Amino acid sequence: MNSRLMFLKNNKNKKKISIILLFFALIVFPFIVNSTYILSLVIEMCIFAIFALSYDLLLGFTGIVSFGHALFFGLGAYTTGILMKGYGWAFVPTLLPVILICVAFGVGIGAVTIRAKDTYFSMLTLAIGQFLWVIVVKSRVITGGEDGYHGVKLLFDNNRLAIYYFMIVVLLLVYIFAKKLINSPTGKVLQAIRENEDRAGMIGYNVLTYKILVILISGSIAGIAGSLYAVTAGSLTPALIHSNTTMHAILMTVIGGMGTLNGPIVGAFIVKTAEHVLSDITQRWMIIFGIIYIIIVLYFPGGITRLKIKSNKFFNKILRNKKNIECFEKSSEEA
Amino acid sequence: MNTLLILIIYGISLGMLYFLLSSGLSLIFGLMKVLNFAHGSLFMWGAYIGYTVFKYTNSFILGILIATIVVGIMGLLMERFLIKPLGNNHMYQLLLTFGLINVLNEIVKIIWGAKVIPASKPQWLSDSVHIFGNVLPTYRIFIMIAGVMVLIMISLILSKTKLGMIIRAGIERPNMVRALGIDVSKIFTIVFIIGAMLAGLGGAIAGPFLSLYPELGVDQIFYALVIVVIGGLGSFIGSAVGGLVVGLTQSIVGYYYPALSMLITILLMLVILIVKPEGLVSLRRRGRE
């Protein structure tokens, strides 16, 4: 028994050490690679990791399928962009209207559809997302239309190193928030809804309210990710709202692992890296991901991070067996 | 008055096009409870295949036939290898069909290129007739006739044949059908093929009307979703009603205020969702399920 406890403690230590090492690596990383290109890539990764994380709150933790999540991302990006360039706002104050708008959209869509059926939510989010896309394309005066909206003031005067550290901190904050959320009583209810909506309702939870709550939380986080995109990329195109951007979030979440917090981050890392590597080779890199995605949905719905967790469990089992055998041998010797 | 009349005729032909687009989607959902988000992409494939066959054989009708058959086969493969293995897990089925949009679009880009292709109409359909002093292209009439023919044919299959009886029963009481010893899984496959064929047919007919580009599927699934929500998700007649409602509104509003045509479609859908969430035509009476 004692040895088992020691083992667990040791494992916890290992985790602590690996987290500290990871932090150290993240801090020294820019000095090792010393390339603006790679730093920009990591910054983009962080933004999309936040976006995918917000999507995972919906899909992985509550079981709601949204096909228009990019609409929140686009709303955030365009709100920040237009307020900063058109009205001379600073970056941080724009986050308030961004969150307000995303909450308004989330509540609106949720209230109309959730009552009908889950499928309706997927349909309506896709339809409204595409509709918003058309509006952004058509209203050239405000959004620049197809040509895009350019010249948004960049964060920290485009000092990539500062932006890099800033993004890591924001990603960490969002991660901690998401972790707190899913471990809170509210989060447990959300997971209960994912497992069995009817039962969660019968226990007495108001499923509707909880669903709308998670929609607006996740929408707001996606909006913030959009704002961050606006101040790091500097130019916005309607493609941000198109269902292809939603597809990116889904790819990252599903490939990384639905219902885990590390999954979307790992997924964002993989998809963005592969995008930059593959897009040099072929323009049609999306097809590779499309096929990988379909295989994962069909055969490994847990995603990549789950595979690792499974292998860990496997090793633990072996180790435990070994320990058991040792214990058994010891006890038999004593006897 | 004459303008309004011609607008109504335009609206009906547009509505029939929408009906061809969305009827397969609704039929599949009604029986299998699978909402095929790749339906618009199948529609696009129909358009591209019809265009290619027409280009090489110079026969428009052959193009439509081959497009219908090939997309039907695509539907068969999709159901067998992608939808069926997921069984009853509708969430994964939604995710899968949405991912399939990407794959189908990318394959189109590889085969036909990413540029817009203006598909041509056959000689015998590129004329126009004069009605009440207005010009009505023959192609509009052709779309109308094709739509009505499909509507009648599928309605007959649904109401008169044994297969149709099973499908209708399966939509209303799936468990009872299973209990009667009918192989529902086989019926699922057949319905999925019919749905896909309808998409292929609609696409081949719509091709010269809409012109071809790889995002066509994504653009069209938008309309298909709006129409099935308005008409009633899962109802075959509902998709015809929804298609006509949207077609007429778009043609009339689009004539007077072109900018509002899409907005009004979305508003119509939202109103229906709030007032009558089950759609204009619902198969199930309230409170039964």
Quick description:
Chain A is an all-alpha fold and 335 residues long. Chain A is built from 14 helices and no strands.
How large is the count of helical segments of chain B?
11
The SS-based structural class of chain B is mainly alpha
* Rg of Cα set of chain A: 22 Å
Report the end-to-end length of chain A measured between terminal Cα atoms. 18 Å
Order of helices and strands of chain B: HHHHEEHHHHHHH
Task: Give the count of structural domains of chain B.
Answer: 1
Low-confidence stretches of chain B: 285-289
**Pair with the most extensive interface?**
A-B, 38 and 41 residues
Biggest sheet architecture of chain B: 2 strands, antiparallel
Task: Indicate the multimeric state.
Answer: heterodimer
Whole-angstrom Rg of chain B: 19 Å
Structure, described:
The complex is a heterodimer of chains A (335) and B (289). Chain A folds into two domains: 37-301, Orthogonal Bundle (ABC transporter involved in vitamin B12 uptake, BtuC), CATH 1.10.3470; 306-335. Chain A contains 14 helices and no strands. The longest helix of chain A has 32 residues, at 2-33. Chain A is mostly helical. Chain A is 82% helix and 0% strand. In chain A, helix 8 (185-195) crosses helix 9 (197-203), helix 8 crosses helix 10 and helix 12 crosses helix 14. Chain B starts with a helix and ends in a 14-residue tail after the last helix. Residues 285-289 of chain B have low confidence and may be disordered. Chain B has eleven helices and two strands, in the order ααααββααααααα. Chain B has one domain (2-114, 124-275). Chain B has a two-stranded antiparallel ribbon. By secondary structure, chain B is mostly helical. In chain B, helix 2 packs across helix 9 (216-231). In chain B, strand 1 and strand 2 (134-137) form a beta hairpin.
